[in-house]
Amino acid sequence: MTEQPVSPEITSDDKLWAALGYPIPLISIIVLFMEEKKDRPFLRFHAIQSIAFNVVLWVLILIVSAVTLGIGAVCAPLLWLVTLWPAFDSYNGKYTEIPVLTNFIKNQGWIESK
Fold this sequence. Notes:
With 114 residues, this protein is mainly α. It is built from 7 helices and no strands. Helix 1 runs antiparallel to helix 6. It is elongated and about 50 Å long.
């Protein structure tokens, strides 16, 4: 993961919303529906990235569970802990990029390149 410098127009409220979106993806969906939040670049970046990250994470959990006949489902809470790393970085005001995932969502035009 690469990190970009902290921008001065990022508020503490933005950081909190972005950080909570990774472990609780419903918050990211709510951010994208809120008029005053969805146009803020920092929030939009992290909301879209956290939704994509959680989709990839849960698909991975389902595949591992299917291959291991349900035993892999025990690992789901442990894999959920992975969401805390980008949440911590976003709370610090950083545009954390998850290597393959961030490039994919930028190429799709869902977020702007920084």
